[in-house]
Amino acid sequence: MVSRKPVLRHGLLALLLSVGAGCGSSGSDSPAPQSYHVGGTVAGLAAGAQLTVMVNGQDSLVIAQSGTFNFGAMLTNGDRYDVTVNASPAGQTCSVAGGSGTVQAANVANIVVTCSDQTFTLGGPVAGLNAAGLVLKNGSETLAVSAGATGFVFPQPLAYTSSFAVAIATQPQGAACTLQNAAGVMPAHAVTNVAVSCSDQPFSLGGTVSGLGSASGLTLANGSDTLAVAARSTAFMFAQRVSFGSVYQVTIQSAPAGMQCLVTNGSGVMPAGAVTNVGIVCAVNTYSVGGRIAGLLAQGLVLANGTDTLAVPPRTGSFTMPTQLPAGAPYNILVQTQPQGRTCSVNDGSGTIGSAPVTNVQITCAVSGYTVGGSVSGLSAAGLVLVNGSDSLSVLANALIFSMPQAVATGASYDVAVQAHPIALSCQVTNGSGIMANTDVSDVSVACNPASESVLFDFSAAGSGGFTPYGKLLQAWSSVLYGVTAFGGAQGFGSLYAVLPDGSVSTLHSFAGGTDGASPYGSLIQGADGSLYGVAAAGGANGNGVVYRINTSGAETVLYSFGVGSDAQKPYGSLLQGSDGNFYGMSLAGGTNNLGTVFVVTPGGTETVLHSFGAATDGSSPWGALIQGNDGNLYGLTSQGGTRGSGVIFRMTLQGTETVLYSFAGGTDAANPRGSLIQASDGNFYGLSAAGGARGQGAVFELTAGGTESVLVSFGAAGDGANPYGDLLQGSDGNLYALTLNGGANGCGALVQISLAGTESVLYSFAGGSDGASPYGSLSETPDGTLWGVTSAGGSGGGGTLFYLN
């Protein structure tokens, strides 16, 4: 089904080489250069259609069905390849991802050609472009953007699900531009958020200083700009800024007496931002860096440690780099030039100089190198990253085959592993490790499958153990998971249960109502003393809820019974132990306006109402919990109130001074949040709202440190989650995870993943049967990367389930 138009240039080259070999040389001492295939995967090609692709504008290949392909012409090490679509099939648009690069002594099998009958435009806003010359590119397509432009759109639309990666091909004259949201997978609509920001300002140049101590006399230079570094300095910055695009080179003009100082990361071209990673390492003693060499039987090996280089003669068994380094300096030995006909690899080549010479660097050389690759199945989404040691590969969606970019020398080990999984998929590697022989490895298999949910416990079958769990699970110091149910237990007022490491579930305490608590709707926390703390929405001396403490053996103490009138009443959330050791929380009712409070309880049980909600444009009716931000203040949400009645985001000092940061507007904005905020790794605050958003069924929102709010995701599309009542979780992979009460493929709720850039995927849709339904709460992550949660309904009798998802 594949026809090729052969290219004569390879045959002509072979003829010329043979003629040259007969003119003064037999040619027997020079082996023929090894050739490599260029190919990949075609996805989405319509039945009966024909697609023509070309490599380097010469070798064409006609493809008649989806699957793998290889060009007939083979390239040698160092050749450039550029795969393009020469003729798309009728009624379809095909685009190439990963189609350009350089052959690196290995077959190329990572190109993906995606065909689709749907295409959409790619563009975004432009800010600060005051000069001509900006050229953007996406693959082989380029676009010149005029000075003063406020937006751009590439002329060529892209196929749905194809990958895009916008880059700056040429910077404008005397200015610098950066990109945001520049790469991704084409959705079923136009991409309009690839943002270009330009600046013509110069930027500062500096970095860190270590080992200087009390010594003086260190002077740095960048061209004619010099800087005297004071004793005991740990950082430096040149007074003269460097223009974008200019070359900088930081050098040691003079070192303190008796010391040697080294510059790392000292040279480069000024980017569109401050350079802060130049390192100055000083020490009294210096040490050599070297090691052993095996298999070096040819000329040409050059090793490098930064700017320090060493040409190594053949048959050398050991080496020492020319320049000694001070204690504390980093080193990174690399092969700058490979020897003739051989491939050398480095083991134990990087580290930090200690108090002795480095002698354990190992250079292993072997005849040629070979490709490590294999097959891929089930990869329907982007995000898969494979690694083999320091060699990494991002595998494009729909790929069926792959090859790692770097060749592996004969006799060296390889170990292909998954560094990052695609959204909603779990990928496993088989036949991924071994010792490289004298042939390519092509039997590594990567299989991707949808993430699956498992039910550990069915609350309906628990007898007096409680049912209808809310909140989230707490992983205590002992690795035991703890949670609460709002109902059931021995007296029918709820329970506190433990999930042991062996998977068994036991009831530690049954709430009794009366002076004891009843109906705990929130989550537990573990205090600094190791005990468990929580609030119940009912029970206590006045029927308005309690603050309780339970040790890990199940012995409970009521610390405080909420009162009447202006006291806090009916807390539905969870406690926070602040940096001062006190416990902070919110109540749904009570306070001077009976619209909720923020309260504080000391470990000894003394309670104080810090704030009563409901005055003027203040929030009201908070359901969730407080968090303590990086600045030491408390942050929280209310479900009602604010200038538009849809709830607020507020900040409060530990003494009770409140500031409303944002009032939700409803409509397409978020509205009526029932959970709590999180402060993510980027320093911004994120949360969920039960209503609002573009479809009125809830949203994920973000609040920057500057107070700007934006909706990242609007829930409620077909098959999507809807109406989340809990909190977000930032997983160890950096993504956000949440449960939604409704929505999903079956209308019974969903588990969703959201990137910080706002890309959302449904990882699991609850079916409403044995797997559970209607999760009101939030997720927890254990150190092994497993997500844990509870549903408030479903299971064998509708009492909810405890589940986990890897």
Structure description:
- It is a single chain.
- A 5-stranded antiparallel beta sheet has the order 1-5-4-8-10, with no helix packed on it.
- Among the domains are: 81 residues, Immunoglobulin-like; 79 residues; 82 residues, Immunoglobulin-like (Sandwich); 83 residues, Sandwich (Immunoglobulin-like), CATH 2.60.40.
- It is mainly β and 806 residues long.
- Helices cover 2% and strands 48% of the residues.
- It has 1 helix and 88 strands.
- The N terminus is likely disordered.
As a percent range, the share of helical residues equals: under 10%
- End-to-end distance, in Å? 41 Å
Count of discrete alpha- or pi-helical segments spanning 4 or more residues: 1
- Going by CATH, the architecture of the domain at 368-450 would be Sandwich
- The CATH class designation of the domain at 368-450 is Mainly Beta
Q: In the CATH scheme, what's the topology name of the domain at 368-450? A: Immunoglobulin-like
Q: What percent strand?
A: over 45%
Structure summary, number of beta strands:
88
Indicate the low-confidence ranges by residue numbers.
1-28
- Rg from Cα: 32 Å
Helix vs. strand class: mainly beta
Name the overall outline. Answer: globular
